[in-house]
Amino acid sequence: MRIRNPHSIRQEKEKRSSSNTKSAVLRLGSYVITFILIILSLFYLWTLYRGVVGPQLSCTVCDTKLDILKKKEDIESTLYIIKSPVDNRLAGAWLVISNSNLAKTLVIYVPPGVFVGDPNELFRSYIQVSDLEYAGVVINPERAVEYVVWQLESMTGFTVENYIWVDESSLIKLNELFGDISEYSHSEYSNVYSNPTSISNPSLMVTSFIDKFMFTKIATNPTLWADTYRSLDTNLSSVNLISHIYTMKGRFKAMEVEMIDLSQEEVILTTKDLNEKEISVINYSAYDRIIEENFNIVRSRSVEKEQAKVEVYNGSGISGLASRYARKVQNFGIKVVRYDNAPQEYERTTIYVSNRDKFGNSFESVQDLICRSCDIIEGRPDFITTGDIIVILGRDKEEELRWK
Fold first, then answer.
1. Looking at the domain assignment, is residue 390 inside a domain?
2. Do residue 252 and residue 350 come from a single domain?
3. Whether residue 247 sits in one domain with residue 108
4. Rounded Cα distance, 54 and 64, in Å
5. Beta bridge partner(s), residue 268
6. Which of 50-59, 208-217, 244-253, 374-383 has the lowest mean pLDDT?
7. What CATH number should be reported for the domain holding residue 85?
8. For residue 84, is it within any domain?
9. Beta strand ranges found along 167-285 (DSSP E)
10. How far apart are the C-alpha atoms of 293 and 226, rounded to whole Å?
11. Fewer beta carbons within 10 Å, N or C terminal of the chain?
12. Residue 379, phi-psi category: left (phi > 0), alpha (psi -120 to 50), beta (remainder)
């Protein structure tokens, strides 16, 4: 039997002890690093959550007298309004309408240089689109954004479900986060549309905005995104806004997309204002023909099945109101066969429906578009009409349009 040297035994014990100590230190170090990584990950997730989910909604149009945000079955419509950081005026507006059943999208571009009429008593002349916010502030500063959205709805003839108002401060933040959305070329984005040759370069800004919007940049800088979102005026929550724009990215890539550019000559008329100054206004006859060509995109299935015919008459005493509301009804997907002045003025707005059971969906849509509270009569008015639903706008519309 071999007897081991006590000195070598002691050395082996010291080596094992040293090895165990090093292993313990390494294990402790790995635990500490793992703990730190977990804390950092949780902190990042919390920061991301606060940046993406936490920012409070800023929506000046959500609770308004006119109730101008309307949800439509089968159809999603979002109005983008972008201000210029240079002169603090509107740089343009884009109404994006998507029909998921048909996999088609329609984009309507409203340039800043065209003029729109105004039935309000303070503005009997035309107003340039770029100055609409200024006009709204003069009328009622608390409802300026609502006024702009209402004018753009009347101009395009469409109600909107969502709106995104990008002012000069939010535009700067968006550019900081995603890159300058105004830097793009016609060749870069015009191929998104089925009619690229008939659209102008400025009309593509919204396409640039949607394309440059990246969640990876939000994820890497959630605090800046939170600041950016808080600077926006929209009825979409932060999460819904991100989801909406990513849905738009997919639609722009996969769907058939048509652009109506209201800066093009075929939809523009030259006229004179009260000061004999030449101005550009929308040629609504030409514009409405283009909308009718794309009617399948803007019409919901339930309304399409009923094939209701609507007539709109102006008994309010306010010039031009029948055409405004007729365009909204028509572009909601309900056929307007006539609009004109009523034989006399009416005190209250009234809707006649010949058969409420047969035209129920169309009637509810018309009622929703025309008024919050109006008189409903099953039957026909006492003058000759041929429509299934007859709308007579009353003097109560004047109070609605005072914007006070």
1. yes
2. no
3. yes
4. 25
5. 282
6. 50-59
7. 3.40.630.190
8. yes
9. 233-234, 256-261, 268-272, 278-282
10. 41
11. N
12. left
Q: In what order do the strands lie in the sheet with 375-378?
A: 335-341, 309-314, 389-393, 350-353, 375-378
CA 377 to chain centre: 34
- For position 313, what pLDDT does the model report? 93
Summarised one tens digit per residue, pLDDT across range 36-78 is 666 666 555 555 556 566 677 788 888 776 778 878 777 889 9
185 and 247 assigned to the same domain: yes
The reply to whether 123 and 238 lie within a common domain is: yes
Q: Please state, in angstroms and rounded to a whole number, the distance separating the CA atoms of residues 397 and 120.
A: 11
Whether residues 166 and 248 fall in one domain: yes
Highest mean pLDDT among 38-42, 144-148, 332-336: 144-148
* 3-class DSSP assignment, residue 309: strand
Q: What length does the chain have? A: 404
pLDDT of residue 25: 66
Q: What Rg do the C-alpha atoms of the chain give, in angstroms?
A: 30
Please report the beta strands in 203-267, taking only residues with DSSP state E, as ranges in sequence order.
233-234, 256-261
pLDDT, one tens digit per residue, over 255-296 is 789 999 999 999 998 888 777 888 899 998 888 888 888 777
Distance (Å, whole) CA 392 – CA 137: 30
Tell me the C-alpha distance between 165 and 58, whole Å. 10
Lowest-confidence region among 41-55, 156-170, 378-392: 41-55
**Which is nearest to 241 in space by CA: 32, 20, 58?**
58
% residues pLDDT > 90 (the chain): 35
Q: State how far the Cα of 337 lies from the Cα of 364, in Å rounded to an integer.
A: 18
Task: Write out the residue range of the structural domain in which residue 122 sits.
Answer: 75-268
23/121 same-domain check: no
Residue 278 lies in a domain: no
Is residue 317 situated within a structural domain? yes
Determine the straight-line distance between the first and last CA of the chain, rounded to whole angstroms.
Answer: 111
Look at residue 332 in the predicted model and tell me its pLDDT: 77
Q: What is the pLDDT, as a whole number, of residue 304?
A: 75
SS3 label, residue 193: coil
Helix, strand, coil share of the chain (percent; to 5): 45, 20, 35
Counted domains in the chain: 3
To the question of pTM greater than 0.85 for the whole model, the response is no
Residue 361 is part of a domain; what is its CATH number?
Answer: 3.30.70.2390
How many Å apart are CA 363 and CA 368, to the nearest integer?
Answer: 8
DSSP letters spanning 143-159? GHHHHHHHHHHHHHT--
